[in-house]
Amino acid sequence: LPTRMAMLAIAALMVSMVFLGYRFASVVNSTSEVAMKKIRAEQLLHREGGSPGQKILHTKVSAVEQKLQDLSDEVSSVTSLLSMNMESAKRKSALEDQVATAREEIMALQHRLDNVTAYAAKVVQEQSQIASDSLQTQYKFFEDSYREAVGGIRRMEAKLAGFVEDSFSRQGSVHRWIVGEEEREGRLLGRSAAAASSQSNNILDLDKIPFNSEMTISWRTECGCTGIGLEAMNLVYPLWKAGVKIWLNKCDNGCDFGMSPELQRMVDAMDKTRPQAKEARSSYYYSSSKSSTPHVYDIVVLHIAYAGICSTKDDRGDGHYIISRSMYEADTIKRSEVERCNSDKINEVWVPTEFNVDTFTSAGVQPSKLFQVGEGIDMYGTWSPEAAKSIEADVMAKLGINGTKAGWNLMSLFKFERRKNWKGLLRAYLTEFNKKDDICFYLKTHEGWEGNPEKWIKQYLRELISEKVINAKQLPCIFLVDSMIDAELLPKFFGEMDAFVLPSHAEGWGLPVLEAMAMELPVAVTDWGGVTQFSSGYSAHDRSHRDEWGRFTGGYAIRVERLEPAFDGNGAGNWAVPSVSHLKSILRHMYEHQMEARESGKLGRQRALRFDRNAVSARVLRNFNEIYEGHIAPKKALQLKKK
Which of 13, 238, 563, 602 has the highest Cβ tally under 10 A? Predict the structure, then answer.
């Protein structure tokens, strides 16, 4: 009881300090000295104690305290598991040392929060003697300390993940962290590449992983500027750079605007070193042609969405071990796809999210074949606010929209198709805002399954106007950006914006959302499907704690009204129908609480750093090592012995 009372006292003192700074910060930007004096007088007289703003701040502080407690509980769980699962005394001792270090770091985080609280108590006691500029300085001190504490929590979560991942053997199936069965319904945690790291000092993890120099890998993916192709290149690039003998398939048509210079250099170098000089080129999405004398690779990865889930169309019979990289946006897959995944032609199925682990398993795919491997992007050299600022080119001018920005700028980016719920997005924005609002929306899209975006959007707007849903004379600022952007300029475009929104019906992953989080943009995304792997959290536990605006670390989760047949009934399963009314309230809240949204975006980047491509590829390399040492090398040794 005394501990609980002490924690409540700490939270109350922190709230008092933060609230003073919060109210003062809102006045600092005002040019009215009278308004400043009035607000400060209200602060000192405590006239606004218990306001909605104060309650929100109290929730914020309480969340940090709860996170620390959760981390302590998880460390305790790992400690208890060590005695049950570790056979090697030396390995167990090393891991126990790591867990002890984790406990010390959690205590350090708690101590840091206590120091901030003590400082807050001093501020409250001496508030009548504190000048306005000093109060602003103290507010900034708290905000910096708070962000540092939350960042520390994120680092601890990633470190704890690494402890457990490295401690237990690769068992197949879900690869969930072994922290108790109750986690299945609670904090559902997966053995994914996300767990490798959340900080830049772990970028070198890949360089520390030994691998057999004789291991050869062929990674076959889509040609052209497809998201799948770029995903494959980002997974392969760190492996190739580390010296792994890995090759992408040849393509007649490359990607002039979607491929960064470093990826292009990799592709060019691969063409000069691949072991099969006469390999058939892939003319578009995939090639099923076979060479008469194929080079046999140790591992072949089939990463071709257009060929279908677990398709073997590009299997040329030239691999000892076949991995299908597959995903699906809806909540189940077809029976024929299940049969392909379970066939002897496929050794493993790698899916990007826990969502797909569950949907594939429930459909009938053998759990022993399923492994979760996320996606990664270059979080430091490309997708960072600092890197974007160093780009000299004026991306807005290149797109022909220079001089159009408003006080607050919103963006979305997606391939133009019904699955992205572009109608719901437009309806929400155009009915919530009007030309009096200092806002502009940039809809970055390109032609997809539904054809020309401009044609369909104009038709839909005419429908909304004729139905008197919107007033053509009162429309807010909106721009359709359907021209392509060079890969190196895309982060700069994100950097020009203030927030990102994507209310999709379903996502297999949601790469633009991850890119937005990497660029410190607060995101508003559907609270369903694969995107929750790195956004709002894939578990019922997370959803049960949503507030009115669905806030999570990094953005805002759009509520789901119901499920409906996916792809108008033309595909398997169901997908989500996001609430337009909830999306409207989220967009309005972000617009009216821009300081909160900005901080959410900064914390969101810390969340996204777990998916730096080096960390993800480190997990991929560990998987390859285990496959090679467990399946390939023994067979090779046996063959040599027979000879």
Answer: 238
